[in-house]
Each structure stands twice: as structure tokens, then as C-alpha cells.
Design brief:
2 domains; mainly beta; about 100 residues; Urease, subunit C, domain 1
Length: about 100
């Protein structure tokens, strides 16, 4: 799959570019990459891409006594789609004075 024209954000900065991926692997990063025969291409113009990045912040299964999250890990993960492969860390809450 070729992802074109996204704003690629890396540790050292950001630049517009393309990504070629296969499954969970990034095969190539560059600019002006051409699709291979039969390769699916997705235009990411105007979108930010974090190659290899994982958003570890969730609010699933959150219980604040008077408010409870509508998703648990099962329903929340089901809605994440085929691109989420690395897991769903939860937000750890603690009571005042409680040690982590």
C-alpha cells in the first residue's frame, strides 16, 4: 500500500512525503514514490502521519464513580479498525494519596 502526500512527523521534525507499507512494516519513506503495479494508493493530503507511532492514551473502561466510559476494551478495540495491532493501554487513575 502506498500512502501519498502526508505530513510525516518524525523525532527530528516533519516533512511532506510518502510511505510504502506492507502489513505492519514500513518498507520505504520518500517523496514522489510511484505506485507499483496493482498497489493500492491512499492520498493523505492535509493529514498528519506518525510512522511507527502509537497513541497510548485511551479513556476506555473509565470509571469516575459518577461517570463511566461508554466503551470497554472489547467494544473500543473492535471499533479501532484493522490498523491497530499493538494493543490498547489504559489510563490508570488513582485515589488521592494512593501510590502507583
Amino acid at each position: 500500500m502506498l500512502l501519498k502526500n502526508g505530513l510525516l512527523v518524525f523525532e527530528g521534525g516533519a516533512r511532506k512525503g510518502d510511505l510504502r507499507i506492507a502489513g505492519e512494516r514500513i518498507l520505504k519513506v520518500g517523496t514522489g514514490l510511484s505506485p507499483e503495479a496493482g498497489e493500492e494508493t491512499v492520498d493523505l493530503e492535509g493529514l498528519v502521519v506518525l510512522p511507527g507511532g502509537v497513541d497510548a492514551h485511551t479513556r476506555m473502561d473509565l470509571d469516575l464513580r459518577h461517570v463511566r466510559a461508554t466503551d470497554d476494551f472489547f467494544t473500543g478495540a473492535k471499533g479501532r479498525g484493522k490498523f491497530l495491532k499493538r494493543g490498547l493501554p489504559d489510563l490508570r487513575l488513582r485515589a488521592k494519596g494512593e501510590q502507583m
